[in-house]
Amino acid sequence: MKQQTFFVKATLAVALAIFSSTAAMGQSDSVAFSISKNGRVEFKELTEKKWFKELTSRIQLHGYAQGGYNYTHQGGTDKNTFELKRVLFWANAQITDRWSFLFMHDFSSVVQEFYTDYRITKNKALTVRLGQFKNGLSLENPLSPTAMEAIDVYSEGVTYLTGCGSDPLMGVQYGRDLGLSLFGETNNGKFRYEVQVMNGQGINKKDGNNFKDFIGRLEYRPAKGLNLVATGQIGRGHAIATSVYNPDIKVGEDYKRNRWTLGFDYKSKWFNTHGEYLDGYDGTVFSRGGYLTGAVPLGTPKVEFVGSYDYFNFNTSRGYDQHKAIAGFQYWFYKKCRVQLQYVYKSAYVADGMFVHGDSHAIMGQVQVRFN
What we know:
The strands form 2 sheets. A 16-stranded antiparallel barrel has the order 3-4-5-6-7-8-9-10-11-12-13-14-15-16-17-18. Strands 1-2 form a two-stranded antiparallel sheet. The chain has 2 domains: 1-57; 68-371, Porin (Beta Barrel), CATH 2.40.160.10. The protein is built from 3 helices and 18 strands. The chain has helices at residues 2-24, 48-58, 156-161; strands spanning 29-35, 41-47, 59-74, 77-94, 99-106, 111-119, 127-134, 176-186, 191-198, 213-223, 226-238, 254-267, 272-282, 285-297, 303-313, 321-334, 337-351, 354-371. The protein is mainly beta.
């Protein structure tokens, strides 16, 4: 009953805030609200200047864009194209000191995230999240593409197992899903945990079956700059297409979808590196692999050499293994803004619905601009 009363008051408060903000556009005074510890909604009058300051202090705007040029030589065919990969904008509204809301949209794609967070404890030990957000599987998936060293972002195993787009059974879900999450940190941030209950169907979609996916994530920081991460997922997928990697699963069929990962991330002034082992089952098909990626400053933090080795076997019983290597440079010309140039080699690829063991070469260039 108390929880229901809280949400009724919260909804009323948001509605009143919207109306008062709209009315304030033509007036010199406005009304701000807050929710007290006992759950009461409190209001106070603000001048136009104070109202604007109150609004800007509660809303944070963020965004970034990534685009560039790709050249590939694969199967005797050359291709090249300019690409606008991502243009993301998101806003975070801090309604109270414990309650916030986030909305994220990719203008080159679709709505990516929308969720609300409520911190249950006075410290950061327990927060609940409800909505659409990134699943916690793997070290890399929760990270922003602006923090990744590779232009094609995540490793092959992460892209395949987390629903970032390379698994046809799941489709392109950008590593996100609809669901509920409980997370927090203790011991001055050394230990972090997260437990998620997700639809398992991806973004902007209802669940395709009556099963839910359960995802667990544990992080431990034993020393400065070092983070150890273990994640796991147990669930049931609902196939939206057929897959060359797993042809026995038909469209509309429910199948077992379990995953496990173990990784590390280390950052220092001399170099940054992270790596991970991943495996998983889709029905009876077992996939596994690992990667190691890093960046080393070349005399100055603004210029870095980037390298990565990535191995993933999409279907161990059929020998659908792929080796991938990346080498290149990046120049940070302003805070989180950079120019990247990289060479990418793959020992296998998919063409015309078939898995092909053959060399694939690519040269990628990208410009990244971000503001917080």
